Amino acid sequence: MLGALWAEPRPADPPARVWRDWALVAVLVAGSFVEMLLRDDRAWAPLLVSVSVVVAACLLWRRTRPLAAVTVAFGAVLAFDVARIVAVDATGLQSIAGLLVLPYALLRWGAGREAALGLGIILIWLPVTLIAVPTTPAEIVGGYGLFLFSAALGAAVRYRTRSHDREIEQVRLRQRNELARELHDTVGHRVSAIAVQAQAGRALSAADPKRALATLVTIEEEASRTLKEMRALVGVLRDGTEADLAPRRGVADIERLARPGGEVLGVRVQVSGDVDAVDPAVSTALYLIAAEAVTNATRHAAGATQVTIDVAASRGQVRLRVHDDGAARTAGSAPAGFGLRGMAERASLLGGTLQAGPDPDGGWSVDASLPHTVRAS
């Protein structure tokens, strides 16, 4: 743990120097001159003002060079306190209270080794200044407490900011995953359907030109719908564009996936139970899982002639099973990509489960179980 703290880098992008920093320096320098004018002992005035100006100037570099600022400021005050102990008969200035800002900046903006070295310099200075000025035990405890509190506050702000940045990054990652899943499940599915229809049209072009022409019409319609969905998705991502709140496809639309066998893989759909009462989010997820499973079977089920989709809604649960009669496959030969992962994520987000793998009776099966109603979180 100590090694990790020592190797910790500086926080990225420290704030630039602004007018408030110059105002703080101006107030501290002006305060030191005013305090010097109001004092009776002015014998060491140039030395006292010089130390005060050095401390105030170091505040300008407290974010970009925190260790250097601590070293110069506390080094100057340490040299002054040693001189007070040895030869100089002068009391300090209250205007060097700007030193309290530096431990905060050190822990907030410094690297791990800079924070350790800077704290060491501060802890060396504290007993020297307490020797230079006779103090009570309560004042000693208070002095250490003030500087340690400043350092602890800087560390707390630093780690709170880091935690906030991590939360933002996690939100962005979830948004990217959701966007990837939507692209894959909507646009990707339609593009796959277009590819399948194009293959069928090519096979029919010589033997049955009329059916090939009908296939081209279907491809055109699918392409138009795909383009429309893509534009809607891009529109939602643009600033100032409202999302399309029109109802999305659901369980009732799964029957549209049915198609006779022949040049392309046949799909049979069977729906039972009260599917109309299923939560809209669950209904949409079931449709997208079914469509993706059919697409995977079309692409990867070697020798398959038919895909069977069974949807059964019972009290509290909705079950979906998609099975193809292709050649037996092992789990290692499962279709790679984002399809299976996206289906599993979609089911998990709604509190359901999804399993996909080779069926004992042959072929490949996708089994999903989702709650009838999504609980509000």
UniProtKB/TrEMBL annotation:
Highest taxon above the source species: Bacteria
One GO molecular-function entry: ATP binding
Protein species of origin: Blastococcus saxobsidens (strain DD2)
Residue ranges annotated for the Signal transduction histidine kinase subgroup 3 dimerisation and phosphoacceptor domain, each copy included: 176-240
Transmembrane regions: 44-61, 68-86, 92-109, 116-134, 140-159
Catalytic activity: ATP + protein L-histidine = ADP + protein N-phospho-L-histidine
Domain Histidine kinase/HSP90-like ATPase: 283-372
Protein name: histidine kinase
